[in-house]
Each structure stands twice: as C-alpha cells, then as structure tokens.
C-alpha cells in the first residue's frame, strides 16, 4: 500500500506535469504516455496505484481518469452538472476507441474540493502528547492518527457536541445492558 507522503509527492509531480493552474485549480488532461523521464515515478502497470479513489478521497483535489476506450472515472463526489462537464471535456479532448482497451490512459485535476472545517473534539495538547507514544493497538510509532478509530469525523451530525455525547451515551448504554 502506498504511504500518504508518497501519494502527496506523486500528486505534486502530476500537478507539475499537468501544468497545474493555481488560480483555476485545474491541470490539462495528461496522457499516461507522458509518464517518462522526470515523471517516470507516476507510471504504473496496473490499477493506478497513486490515483485510486480510495487514496484520493481524503485529498484536496478533484481528480478524474479515463480509460483508452472511454470509461471515465470521477474520483470524488461531484454534482450532476460538474460530472457532465468533466465527461464532455474528456470526450472533446481525448481520442477514445475500443482498440485502446480498458487501461487508465488519461488523467486530470479539475478543481479543489470544498473541505469541511470540522473541529476535532480532542484538544491539541492531548493529541501532541499521544503522537509521541507508540500506538497501543499495533505498536507503530510513525504517522500516528490519535483518533483514527473514531471514523465519524466526516459525519456532520456526529460532530455537533451534543449529538456526539448522545451517540456515545447510547452506544455505551447498549453495550453494558
């Protein structure tokens, strides 16, 4: 599995190759054939190791890929209007054909995601203290995420303190009764 820093550096490398426009938040469509010389670290043989939705979901960029035969994968949540716009853009700029196969061939960053500015419920001093300790679950001491088992930070109603406390109360009450 690719680590977080490696993914970030590959995204930065892709932005350079794709001539990322900071003002508009987009790159041009890049063809996999361009992953040579200074950009050879972007090359992959199968499955898009650095450009899978599971890896890009937590990133800040809206990313899409297309296969040689024209299957377009938008690797983030977008509305119907934005989906149609990116699909049409790929169709306009790329040379799709059945002969090109179903391998990922084209790539684009087409904007930045709107990030939720949720407040973590764990105080910063507590997070910093535990980040310097080994994980009690697995023993790892690198890239610790103190609250990784919570899994609910992207759920808006859970982040409201009262809802969160109510959730915890009901959760623990159900365990012990």
Which helices and strands, and how do they pair?
Layout: H1 4-17, E1 30-31, H2 53-56, E2 61-67, E3 72-74, H3 80-93, E4 104-112, H4 124-131, H5 156-159, H6 161-175
Antiparallel strand pairs: 1-4, 2-3, 2-4
Give a brief description.
With 177 residues, the protein is an alpha+beta fold. 33% of the residues lie in helices and 12% in strands.
* Span between termini: 40 Å
Number of helices: 6
Overall spatial form: elongated
- Major sheet, described briefly? 4 strands, antiparallel
Helix content class: 25-40%
Question: Residue ranges: pLDDT <50 for 5 or more in a row?
Answer: none
What does this structure look like?
β2 (61-67) and β3 (72-74) form a beta hairpin. Helix content is 33%, strand content 12%. The chain has 6 helices and 4 strands. The chain has 2 domains: 4-112, no CATH class; 124-175, no CATH class. Strands 1-4-2-3 form a 4-stranded antiparallel β-sheet, covered by helices on one side. It is α+β, with helices and mostly antiparallel strands and 177 residues long.
Features:
4 strands, 177 residues, 4-stranded antiparallel beta sheet
